[in-house]
């Protein structure tokens, strides 16, 4: 009867995790992930990077829209001495004091297909000679022109191909950043969960060990146990006390790490809920690979890198050969003593200019630049092909690992249940005198290890789940693509 009372005492002394309504925050894994995505520093960094890329995209778009610019010199006053060549060839320095102000309003539009630019302009200039008290005006009331590079590299055409890919890539990078946050927050979640479980195990073990010590002392008094067993149990009690101190330290560190990462500011104690269910969802290698190539920024990056290599070759060829720039303009101009005179019978003006740049002797520099760009293009193609192979292998590995860990999780859960039952039986047998202290200690260690193995298996499973979401940007549970959060 006395031994039965001791056995019941073991269950009564085992600590339970009770929480009051105040001072404790209970969180599940999905809640921790959502908090990290919404308020963590990493999430704010990802959002800021996304915003930066958006405005870079807007800047690119503005390059293909009309640009209206007003520029000028107001005022442009000069007071100095300037050299003047005399009729006999000598030089004298004469004082000058004048204002030469100007205003120019121009409207320009780039032509993406040709790389040229069409523009319209109006200009007004005023010259004041203060020494002679004379004022003159010069004006171009209206003029239109066109500037066209010939046989030259056209950056507008290539940017039109590459910049949209860069923007799409940045949008996918943002989604990937959030999924990376989910993976990282899962690590912090299970680090804290394991610390909580270790503390619970240590507290339970201490209570059980102290109770068994009392039973052993009773047995020792009646000669049914040895002094060695008493000492062994006392040693186990000291180990349990040390384990509690270590577990409390680890718990404090893990709590601080989790709170800091997910941006939780309160001082409440955290109590994490062990994930009870696993996702019984089919994950196909083919679907995972297809979604990865459709959604991941890496897949967009592959195309962008090839286009950038092609652009480098085109630029090397365009800059190394015959380069010409044709500029033509037509309009009106006039001069006068007053502004109204400028717009009375203005004179026509025309301008045509062809600028040439022909390399004659460069000691093979032009050819070397072109060959370098072509070699770099080949290297980029090989690098991208290797990256694609690694990309595919990573997806296949992750899908296989996910399926394997799901099966392993079921096994560790069974092992945890069996080890707990085995320990209870061993404890009862020891109380009844049918088991040695060595066998009890082995059952004791197996129980603790099985519990930790199950938590570690849960961590591996859920971390792999979120890593699979990150690698594919696809929600297999809902069967839909993971869309950007605006």
From TrEMBL:
Keywords tagged on the record: Cell outer membrane, Membrane, Signal, Transmembrane, Transmembrane beta strand, Transport
Presence of keyword Transport: yes
SUPFAM superfamilies: Outer membrane efflux proteins (OEP)
Stored Pfam families: OEP
Compartments where located: Cell outer membrane
Signal sequence region: 1-21
Family: Belongs to the outer membrane factor (OMF) (TC 1.B.17) family.
Name the UniProt record assigns to this protein: TolC family protein
Source organism per UniProt: Emticicia soli
